[in-house]
Amino acid sequence: MQRSLGNIILQKPFVPTQLRKRCGAIAYRRKIRMASAVANDELLAVAKSAAQAATQIILAAVDKPRKVSFKGTTDLVTETDKNSEEAIIKVIRQSFPHHGLLGEEGGVSGDVNSEYLWCIDPLDGTTNFTHGYPSFATSVGVLHNSQPAAACIVEFAGGPGSWVARTYTATKGGGAFFNGQRLETSSTSAINQSLLVTGFGYEHDEPWAANMELFKEFTDESRGVRRLGAAAVDLCHVAIGVVDGYWEYRLKPWDVCAGVLIATEAGAKVTTMEGDAFSVFDRSVLAATPSLHAAMLAKTQPATAKLRKGGIDFSHWFVPEGYKVVPVA
Q1: Which of 2, 212, 234, 287 could hold 270 in an S-S bridge, CB 3.0 to 4.6 Å?
Q2: Residues 250-263: pLDDT tens digits?
Q3: How far is residue 35's CA from residue 29's CA, in Å, rounded to a whole number?
Q4: pLDDT in tens, 51-63
Q5: pLDDT higher than 80, residue 218
Q6: Is-above-0.85 flag for pTM?
Q7: Which residues contact 11 (CB under 8 A, 6 or more apart)?
Q8: Burial (0-12, 13-18, 19+ Cβ within 10 Å), 22
């Protein structure tokens, strides 16, 4: 096509149709990404609403007979797990229909190419819930470019006939809160003055055995080591300062996404058990007060290095297919 400008004839550059369409699609996706940027406070509001929806289901079921099935020999799942996850997903989808989602029970859904990936554990500590033991929670966290941006965990405390729900929240750079009050870790700096917490997976393999040895070591030197059976609760207890440090192998993204942000924003130092920058897709976590972290790492690092040398895989896992993990800065 030609256009004239006085006596000058201008030739419009030829652009193949397919290229025009492709460039248009790229620009459109870029525009959508820019338009879809969400403030952390907005993400938190949805996380809280989703966690509250699950809380109502759990409180309605907690003192009633449970319908239990098995994902493994001792790994339980209940109807409450499934109903709670459905309620969480419904709330998230109403606000962010194009975000990615990774749930313990339902797996991957939504757009894994989104900058946002929600990681949800509708009922962390299902075995405790099944037995009426007061250490379980619902956990809702969201990643922005692979890093936790907003989190809400509701811990169920008390016991049969007297359950209470305790809410922990955090946004990246905005602090962590417990029932609206700002959280801060303890100032404990010595293992012999600390109370610690850990956990053990369902597979009794090499990392499980290595953690048993760490459990013994820390029990010998600390004031005690607790094993509650819910990673989300463990991390919140570090954040609120009732325990001083926590470590565990082979947690999943939905186990730690929300809790790691809450602990970090409360002042905890969170790394892998080898001291590397932590990603929710890592297979080990160490969270402790800043002044205690190095002393704990001195024990967890050699134990983990020994496992790695023996062939145990510590690469990222449970990364949704097609999801881009952005390296930790």
Answers
A1: 287
A2: 999 999 999 999 99
A3: 10
A4: 999 999 999 999 8
A5: yes
A6: yes
A7: 2
A8: exposed
Residue tagged 């040895």 (tokens): 213
